[in-house]
Amino acid sequence: MTSRTGFFVLSAALLLVSLICVGEGVQLIATGKPLGIGLGACAFVIPAIGVWFLRQTVRFGRASEQLARELEAEDGLPVDELRRTSGGRIDRASADEVFARRQTEAERSPGDWRVFFRLAVAYADAGDTPRARKTMQHAIKLHGSTVQIGSTK
Question: What is the band of 42 on the pLDDT scale with cuts at 50, 70, 90?
């Protein structure tokens, strides 16, 4: 199963559970008892948080894809230069070498979203998903500020 398929399956499950939870919340509120009303109100909060998280994830994915499409149009996507083990896994030393180069590029060009996009890919290749996501969010933020600056000229 690809990550995109998994995302859609989990999103559908989240939405289904949210609908069930809201339905149960309505029934609890309809009892008219204070405890039922309180629990019913809580049953609305949990799905709201889940839907908010889903929305943020979709926005992040779309923005990341947009940056990738722009870099692809510019021929600026990072080239896969990583060595692999016989089992197909990325060689850790190779990922560390590429990461060191990408980090140096980011230090030299702190305002270039393209550099931070490539650094995020290097973080992901090195197995550091939380930093990859945070760096990609930074690249998205930088891209948004350059688009806004470019559109005001």
Answer: very high
Do residues 86 and 110 touch, judged by C-beta distance below 8 A?
no
| CA–CA dist 126, 2 (Å, integer) | 20
Q: What is the mean pLDDT of the chain?
A: 89
d(CA 60, CA 42): 28
What's the rounded Cα separation, in Å, for the pair 14 and 36? 23
CA 72 distance to own-chain centroid: 19
- Backbone angles phi and psi of 90, in degrees to 5: -70, 135
To which residue do tokens 């939870």 refer?
Answer: 21
Rounded to the nearest 10 degrees, the angle between the axes of helix 113-125 and helix 92-108 is: 160
150 pLDDT exceeds 70?
no
pLDDT digits (tens, 9 = 90+) for 77-118: 888 888 888 888 888 888 888 889 999 999 999 999 999 999
Q: Which of 90, 69, 68, 72 is nearest to 81 (CA)?
A: 90
